[in-house]
Amino acid sequence: MVINTNISAQSSANLLSQSSAMLSKSLARLSSGSKITSPADDSAGLAVSMKLGAQMGRIDAANNNVGNAISFNQTQDGYLQKVGDALNRMSELAVLAQDVTKTSADTTLYQQEFSTLGAFINDVATKQFNGVTLFDGVGHAVTTDSDANTFSMTGVSLGAATYTTAAGDNINTNATKALGDVKAAITQLATDRANIGSNIERLQMHSDQLGTLKNNLSAANSRITDVDVAQESTQYAKYNILVQTGTAMLAQANALPQSALRLLQ
Fold this sequence. Notes:
2 domains; two-stranded antiparallel ribbon; 7 helices; about 75% helix; rod-shaped
């Protein structure tokens, strides 16, 4: 029996230190909800998690862009619905102006309404969405994924000759020509609204795709970083018991050299 070197106490202290470290790590995981509380816990997993997190951030940004583009197209369509109402009324006026029972005073009144509606169409052509012109015919490129790939929306131009010609006609002098021009504008409007509908449908598909991708990336990231509370609670209970028993055994090991005194009595 030796006194200067207490091997049992040293071994107990070493095991107690290990148990205490694991207990502290378990407490950190439970309190943070993350399996990775320091890079040393899972360096490779941390690297993957960081890349997944960055990609999810870019997906959110792309989804915001897509959502704004959908709102842009919906605003366009809202205006074009009113333009359609105006063109429909203008076509009615062009037909009414050809009534042989109408006097020139009557057709002058029809022309006044016709020109007012034409001015409305010209005014709509200048409208903007957050400073971006709605009807300049430009096909804006919309970011659709985390790699900044784009989809070019089909543009609509209310400044096209088809619309401006119809808006500038005079049913008081040539109702037949005005009717033909308005019918051509209605046909063009139908095409433009169909293009906008296609834009919205395509963008909505991109938005749904981004949502699905983000959900799957979140699930993958969760498997790497999120702690399993039930499993970790079991580990916590284990290390807590080991710390308590280790403390008790260290006390016993420290008391062993005292037995050497009995040999000296």
